[in-house]
Amino acid sequence: MEWYVTLLAGIMILFALFLSGTPIFLAFLIAILTGVYFIIGPFGFPMFANSILDTATTTSLASIPLFILMGELLFRSGTMDVLFNSIDKLVGRVRGRQYVLVVVLSAVFGALSGVAMAVAAMLGRAIMPGMVTRGYDRDIAAGLIIAGASLAPIIPPSLLAIIVGSLADVSIAKLLIAGVVPGLLLGGIFLAYVFVRIALKPDLAPANVSSERGEVSSGEMVMALVRILPFAIVIFSVMGFILLGIATPSESAATGVLGAIVTAAIYRNLSFKMIWQSVMAAITVSAMILAIMAMSKMFTQLLAFTGATSQLVDLVANLGYGPLTMLIIMLAVPFLLCMFIDTIAVILLTIPIYQPVVTALEYDPVWFWLLFLINITLGAITPPFGYTLFAFKAVVPDMSISQVYRAIWPFVILFLIGIVVIIAFPAIATWLPELVG
Amino acid sequence: MSRILRPLAKAHDALTGLGAILATVGLMSIVASYVYEVITRYIFNSPTAWASDYVSYALAASIFLALPQVTKERGHVAVTILVDIIPTKAAGIVHFIVSIIGFFSLSLAAWISLQENIRQYTRDIETLAMVPIPVWWVSSFITFGLTLSAIYMLRYAAPSSRSSENFLGAGSN
What we know:
Shape of chain B: elongated
Oligomer: heterodimer
Distance between the termini of chain B: 34 Å
Radius of gyration of chain A: 22 Å
Strand content of chain B: under 5%
Largest sheet of chain A: none
Helix content of chain B: over 70%
Order of helices and strands of chain A: HHHHHHHHHHHHHHHHHHHHHH
Largest interface: A-B, 64 and 66 residues
Distance between the termini of chain A: 46 Å
Shape of chain A: globular
């Protein structure tokens, strides 16, 4: 059988299983068992068992449960409320200040949790009703919350960056750090857009800024700043340790957990029960993610075994398109897929195919995989099936899904502008990782 | 449920709960090992020989000890967009088929894993690590997780276990 028939058949089987509601880890398992049987034969089954073991014992993947645990500890201990209240006090009395608050909180919560859906649900529940009551434009508020939440997988620590880094065999530390500047750039683009909209149409934000936030004395501002300081322990024990070369990304995830425990203790919100519940929640969520990764590892080996990998690289190399056209095609595919199927499934499906192509095209791996990461994040907020949209919709029941769709489109375009800027100026993504070495 | 099946289901649930508790302890031990490693390496300039290997073993064990709990709670990610919009009866049929296929696939995977465990045990195969241990000590957790998850799939195929909610997955990412 020709390699492309095998490849297409495999992808079609996976898609059919995904759309039938089969859990993703099970869909990969079914497709791979079928693939091994028909391509290699029953003698290939031990290879499958060993591929599960190889993935499950990959040390770098330990950072997934550890970062999830760090986020769980911070959320369950109520320390996020402290952060929320303090940042609210610190954001000045500018017109549209709640929009600014959303972007700042998204960036900070994103840095502490790394999961877009969680941040979208949390901000949707905590901020959205108050913004609408105060007279903020509902569409901008909704779009900004969803887009802001999508900075979470880009600003480190990011679970998706770890998954992409480990599968694409690119430095996880570099990929994590590479997200800092693009994440801030996108946040800046969102804010600039909001201020331009307010300047053109002032009634998009309430005129009476003083009614939103009472007079905050300089003493209260200092106190708000002091109350935020313990979070520096968490951020330093993760990013600081990586940047200073004290710890690997996985080790820094563990020190981040310790930092989260210390932070919770400083706020007097630490209890054994809270820790136990956080660890229990983290390991079940992680088992779900890592089971998918463990099951799908054999997909890469099957691609190589059928010759699909090398044939695909030859095909791409002989297409005759320039690097920019190829880049656009390679980014368009996962973007479209993410509109319909799960982000992790898209990552697991495309990376084994893309990795040799990226090498053949001689793209900077950190730059390309960061673009890939931003792109799949964008796919998760693009209608009709972006999952972050559904997470937001679930906590804002008075908005219809079509209203959510309408709200997000301007921010999808802003994301695309951000991607174009990073393509045009690769240093935005590569400068910081190169600086660190 | 018959008198024979009910105690078996209870034992299955109890074993799953025990697995989840052990997985939780496993994750705590990963945090402790890494923090200890960073302290001994950076402050005392005396890195351990075992921390990295231990984390890899504990990670594999924790994932597959927790897997049955995820399956029990129907916590796996699934794309439920189409299943959610088709009629309930049709969705029930799809769920039944998927759970039966899931049972057979997971059972086959568990059997394959068990054969590997036996091969690793009989041939005395050890991990390639600074601190080598018999591979089956780690890989047997995979068999445990797949077997217990397969049984949940079978239990979910029973009409009494079907719910109008998402049947097998959480429908999110």
